[in-house]
Each structure stands twice: as C-alpha cells, then as structure tokens.
Design a protein that fits this description.
The complex is a heterodimer. Chain A is of the alpha/beta class. Chain A has helices spanning 2-13, 40-59, 79-91, 104-118, 131-137, 152-166, 180-195, 214-221, 234-246, 262-268, 270-273, 289-301, 310-327, 332-344, 355-366, 410-419, and strands at 26-33, 67-74, 97-100, 121-124, 145-147, 171-177, 199-206, 227-231, 253-255, 277-282, 349-351, 371-373, 392-398, 401-408. Chain B has a two-stranded antiparallel sheet with strand order 1-2. Chain B is globular and about 55 Å long. By secondary structure, chain B is mainly alpha-helical. Classes of the chains: A alpha/beta, B mainly alpha. Chain A binds chain B through residues 35-37, 40-41, 178, 204-207, 209-212, 214-216, 218-219, 222, 235, 238-239, 242, 245-248, 263, 267, 269, 272, and chain B through 1, 4-5, 8-9, 11-12, 15-16, 123, 128-130, 132, 135-140, 148, 150, 219, 222-224, 226-228, 232-233, 236, 263-264, 267, 271-273, 275-276.
C-alpha cells in the first residue's frame, strides 16, 4: 500500500494526472504456519482452509476493492525461522496482520519479537498455551494478540476429568514438550488431576529434535504409572510412543489436541492404539457456518477436514478480512480495533461463512450497518485478552480411526474447574 | 536405572560414532568441516528404505527375534553404494571446483548449501512424513536385571563394533588405508611419494559416505527416518568429532560414545530439559583442558 501512495505522490509531483483508483491492487495478509517440521502434518492442511477463505473473499469482491492476497511462509515449527519469516512479512510485504503460528512456542516468539512491537495483529488458529492469557494480562501483547482456539486452561481440566472419571486412572506419567504449549498443558493437567486426589507419577520434559528419547521414556516409566499422558507433537510423539510401547509401558494413553492426527496414529501403528487412547481436542461449536465451510472445502480440495484447527484457521482469515472491510483498514491498529465490531455486536446482522455471506457483509458495511460474523469454529467472542471459549471434544482410536465420543461444553468444563477449586 | 541409561547411551553412541568417523575422515584428508555429512546420513536411511519397501511383499521372513530379514541386509549394501555415489557426485559438482581455490571457508559454506539442497530434495521426493523400516514395534527384553533392550538395538551395537574393527584393519593393513593416512599427515609429501591424491579423495568419500549410510540405517532402525534426521544429528556428530580430537578416527568413536552416554546418564542428575546442553558443555570442558581433543595430536 505504501508503495502505491509513493507512486501516486511521485506522479502528482511530476505534474502527471493521478491514475484512476480502479487499478488492480492487492491487500496482503501474512500467514506463518508450519508446512514442515514437527507440526507439518497439521499445518499443511490448515493452510488450505486459509486459502479457501481468501478465495471466497475475492469471489465476493475482495477487501476495500482490492484482492486479498495471502503471503504464506513456512515456520518449519521453529521459533527462529518463524520470527525471520514474520519479520520479512511485516518489513518487506507490509502486512497489517498475520495468521499463525500453530505451535505456542512459535507464536510466542513471533508475538513478543515481531507483531506486538510492530503493532501488527496476530491471530493464531491453534496456539493453546495459557501463557498467552498471562502475557495479555500483563499488557505485553498490546491487544494485538487473538486466538480462535480456546486456551488449555480448559483442555487441561477436560483431560483430567477424562482420565479420572472415564478412564478411571489413579496414577499417570506425563511426558511433555519443553515449550509454552507443553509446559502450560502439562501443568494445568497436573493441577486438575491432583485436585481429584490422584497422582502424577512423573513429569518429564523433552526437547524437540533430539537424536533419541529413550532416557526420557525410561524416566517416565519409574513409579509404575497406569497410563501415559504425552503432550507433544506428532513427529517426536511417534518416536516417544514407540519407545514407550517397546519398553513395556502401561497401555493406556492420553493424547492432547496436537496428537489428534491420523498420520500420528499410522506412524505409531493403529494396532497398538486401538481402544487404548483417550484424547481431548478443542472442538467446534456446531454453528450454521460449519457445514457451509465443510462443503466448500470438499468442493475445492476433494476431501474433508482431517486435522484439528482447520476451521480455526479459516476463521482467523475471515475475521481479519471482515475487520479490514469494516474499518477500511490498512494498519494493524485499525484491524485490532475493529475485530470485536464484526464478531460480537449483538445488533449486527449474522454473517455466515460463504461467498454469499461475505457479499452480504460487504454490502451492509458499505451502508454503514453492523454485522456479526458467525465463525465455522464457534461464535468467536474474544475476551479482553484475545481468548475465546469453546467446547472440548473427547476422542478415542477405534479400528485405526479417530472417533469423537463426547463433547464437553464450556459450561460443563467451567463447572468442573470450580468443583476442583481451580481458577 | 543406571544400567538402563547406560545401555540407552551406548545404542545412541554407536550411531553417533559411525557418523562422526566419516566427518573426521573428510576433515582430515579433504581439510574442511563438511556440513553436508548429515544429509548423507539421511539419504543413506532413505536409500535403504526404498529397498525395504520394494521387498515389502516378503514380509514375515525375519531373522529370529530381529525386526527385519534379507531385504535390510541387501538394503545396507545398496545404500552404502548409492550414498557413496551421491557423495562423489556432490564432490565432483561442488567441492572439486572449490578445492582448487584453496579457501577453506568457501568449502565449508558450500557444504552447508549442499546440505540444505540434499535435505530439501528428500522432502520433495519422499515427503516430510516420518517413515519406519518396520510397522511393528519390537518389545524390549531384559538382558540384565533392570536393563531392557530390543534385539535390533543389540544388532546395531554389534555391527558397529564389527565395522569399527574392519575400518581399523583397513587403515592399518591395506595399502590404500596407509596411503589415506599418509595423505592426511602431509598431502604434498604423499604426492611426492607417488600417491594418487584424486584416488584418495574418492576413497575418502566412499568410506565416509558408506559409514554415514549405515549410521542412517541404524538411526532409522532404532528411532525413525525423517528428512531432518541427519541435520538434527549433525551438531552431535561435530561435538563427537571435536571432543575425540578432530582427525582421529578412534577419537571420533570415543567421542560418539562419550556424547551418547553422557547425554543419557545426565538424566539421573538433572532434568531432561537440559539434556541437549550436556553434550556441548562436555565438549567445551574437554577443549578447555585439552584443546586438541581427547585423542587429537598435539601439533599439526
């Protein structure tokens, strides 16, 4: 955008007639997601939904008369690489907003060193660490941080409930990834599980990209746990699981959102997991937008959603685009100030996630009327820390397939949290 | 628990040792730190995987308690040949030309570039997903009280020992091996006595790449096959080579073992969160006391 103005200024200065404004222009949004690395299997699919949202917006007329352009960068699930990519997007492509990343560790690095200082909006579709809420409370996000997936303050409690009440476990070992996601979820689970009067036999952190995880598994096996809660990412997670099974670990497994992936189940071996898994994953509230996005996705790619956070990624792009349209925004600060206008104005006309919906939204906004976007992942009411609440889905592995067995509503989780005396 | 951690360390140490030998050989004879060595390891694992998958139809025929049968033995030979060819091609395309300029830094940086290229080629051809030689998970057995290992892991350690003995015999008993050591000691003097340097360079790549390929297969057998595996191992391989004394083959073996065992034993005393730091702290300590490494020559 800045370049366009510069070009305009130069042409005015030279006495030439300013060019007409209908010239093809683009409105870039950055996307920093893992296409390779530990979360590559999730990120590759997630990005497709971002592309779907962008394509639908452009068919509905684009943003502020310009084509919405996604600038996609691979985070490689590594903070240093992602920060570099985000910096390039902000400094060179001048994006006012970035969708990403998936890993809490990576999102945290981008947030603290790129987006918050540069006043660029960042919406993560899948970073669930409670650490972000803390950061926002301390005022360090400047209000530029949002996420379309609920915090693990919910998932940790849901997992403890599942382990205690459904799997009937009393002694669980935890192996967790040594980053904000792993630490946040593991500690929350420990808090809730011990509040039930049960025991966490071991809390073993692991680092990504290590040549072997045998000693971590050996340490977690001490204390004879009845089950393993593995808070990790699919690639190393598969290695750790295979070591655990190979070394005769107890065969009940608790898996969080990051391991809710068919590839992970295949890599470990479905026959070892069938019937032994209890999992949790932030779910989508069944909104009216969900079937529309599902159908559009299938039309575009030929297959349905396979990974967690597919709908959350779609919503992240949609929310940014609508906020830009609503405020005629080209800066992060403007987008930040308009996001809540398009998602939670009770008087707003409900907008569904489709080409038709976006067309309607543009029309209403042009007339100065309020809108309320209904997300595909939920109703998207961001609190002042940028968090949304949402349900947690309980899943199991049956005949090699991931099967959802139960949905725990936000109210139900809040009640359990209160009963356990947690905040 | 001490025994179990020790066993875990020895298994990792054998893979690291084989990888570090190749690294130290290229450093010694070709005179540069080859960052592409990790990628040779990765390619080695994938070459072997092609054969194992191609022979996938004859599943079930495994050697006793091991998780694999003839296909993996064929694969080991195939991958040693293919990885050597790959190394020689890379040498011909990149390093041969840069060697003439005699600027070491350009070789090191070029090797880093070659490493990125080779790694991403793996992603393009084989995809970013992890792979395994066998879908089945081997159940570990108790060999000593409190020490559980899988048959595959014992195989890896035994074959590593055999390969190291063979390498020792090759370097001390054969004309070629002696010529390689002579070249490492003093290239000009070796050339004067009639040793064909180009031939030595080729054989250095063949020996280094073959060992890297086997190390890659071992890693795939005991952990997993991944496009980033070699790159992730590279820092540890360098640590092992430097710790043992750059240029010394026996130092590389010792270094690999020390790094592997120290990392796993450290879990007894400190949180696994700090495990990656152990290898490097150890390396720094050794270098402070003995700047040439444990078995490195004092002056060069």
């Amino acid at each position: 955008m800045r370049k366009t103005y510069l070009g305009l200024a130069v042409s005015v200065a030279l006495g030439a007639m300013p060019l007409a404004a209908h010239a093809a222009c683009t409105s870039p949004i950055g996307v920093v997601m893992p296409l390779t690395g530990s979360l590559g299997v999730l990120g590759q699919e997630n990005v497709k939904t971002a592309q779907l949202a962008a394509a639908q917006f452009n068919k509905a007329g684009g943003i502020n008369g310009c084509t919405l352009q996604l600038k996609i960068a691979d985070s490689q699930t590594q903070p240093a690489i992602a920060v570099d990519a985000a910096k390039k997007l902000v400094d060179i492509s001048h994006v006012p907003a970035i969708v990403g990343a998936l890993s809490s560790g990576v999102s945290m690095a981008i947030l603290t060193s790129v987006t918050a200082p540069s006043k660029v909006v960042q919406i993560s579709p899948g970073s669930t660490s409670p650490a972000f809420t803390q950061l926002a409370k301390e005022g360090k996000t400047g209000g530029y941080w949002f996420r379309t997936a609920p915090s693990d303050a919910l998932q940790g409690v849901a997992m403890a409930y599942v382990a205690h009440s459904q799997a009937k476990l009393k002694r669980v070992a935890v192996i967790y990834l040594n980053n904000p996601y792993g630490i946040g979820l593991a500690n929350r689970f420990k808090q809730a599980f011990t509040a039930y009067g049960d025991t966490v036999t071991a809390m073993v952190p692991y680092n990504p990209k290590q040549p072997s995880y045998r000693s971590e598994v050996t340490q977690a096996l001490q204390g004879n746990p009845q089950a393993l809660f593995l808070v990790g990412y699919p690639t190393e997670g598969a290695t750790i699981m295979r070591e655990w099974i190979s070394n005769g670990g107890a065969n009940t497994y608790l898996f969080p959102d990051a391991l809710n992936s068919p590839q992970f189940v295949n890599n470990v071996g479905a026959k070892y997991l069938d019937g032994h898994v209890w999992g949790t994953v932030p779910g989508s509230t069944k909104t009216k937008s969900l079937p529309l996005v599902k159908a559009a996705f299938k039309r575009m790619y030929g297959h349905g959603f396979t990974q967690p956070y597919d709908t959350n990624t779609y919503d992240a792009v949609a929310v940014i685009a609508l906020a830009m349209e609503a405020g005629k925004c080209s800066t992060g600060t403007c987008i930040k100030d308009h996001i809540r206008d398009v998602t939670e104005n009770p008087k707003g006309t409900p907008i569904l996630a489709s080409i038709k919906g976006f067309k309607k939204a543009r029309m209403l906004l042009a007339e100065g009327k309020p809108i309320r976007y209904i997300g595909a992942s939920g109703t998207l009411q961001f609190n002042k820390y940028g968090d949304v609440t949402g349900p947690e889905v309980v899943w199991r592995v049956k005949k090699g397939k991931i099967v959802d067995v139960e949905t725990m509503s936000p109210g139900q989780i809040a009640k359990i949290t209160k009963e356990l005396g947690l905040k | 628990m001490f025994g179990q951690y020790l066993a875990d360390g020895i298994i990792l140490g054998s893979t690291l040792a084989l990888g570090a030998i190749g690294l130290t050989l290229t450093y010694n004879i070709l005179n540069f730190a080859n960052f592409a060595h990790g990628s040779l390891l990765t390619w080695g694992a994938y070459f072997a995987w092609i054969i194992v998958v191609a022979f996938g139809g004859v599943q079930g025929a495994t050697f006793g308690p091991l998780s694999f049968g003839w296909p993996l033995v064929v694969a080991l030979l195939f991958t040693a040949v293919m990885t050597s060819i790959l190394a020689i091609i890379v040498d011909w395309l990149v390093f041969r030309i840069l060697r003439k300029t005699n600027i070491q830094v350009s070789l090191v940086i070029a090797s880093f570039g070659a490493s990125l290229l080779l790694r991403n080629l793996v992603v393009v051809i084989f995809g970013p997903e992890p792979q395994y030689y066998s879908e089945n998970i081997q159940i570990a057995r108790e060999i000593f009280p409190g020490v559980r290992v899988t048959p595959d892991q014992i195989f890896v350690v035994c074959l590593s020992i055999i390969l190291v003995i063979l390498l020792h015999l090759f370097m001390t008993r054969t004309k070629l091996g002696k010529a390689m050591r002579a070249t490492a000691d003093n290239t000009s003097l070796a050339q004067v006595t009639g040793i064909n340097i180009n031939n030595i360079v080729r054989w250095t790549w063949i020996v280094g790449a073959s060992l890297a390929a086997v190390a890659g297969v071992f890693f795939g057998l005991t952990v997993q096959i991944l496009p980033e595996m070699g790159f992730n191992l590279l820092l540890f391989l360098f640590a092992a080579a430097i710790l043992g004394g750059v240029g010394s083959i026996y130092g590389a073996i010792l270094g690999g073992m020390v790094i592997g065992i120290a990392a796993d034993l450290s879990v007894l005393f400190i949180s696994p969160a700090y495990k990656p730091a152990v290898a490097f702290t150890l390396m720094i300590l050794v270098l402070l006391i003995r700047p040439s490494g444990i078995l490195g020559e004092k002056t060069r």
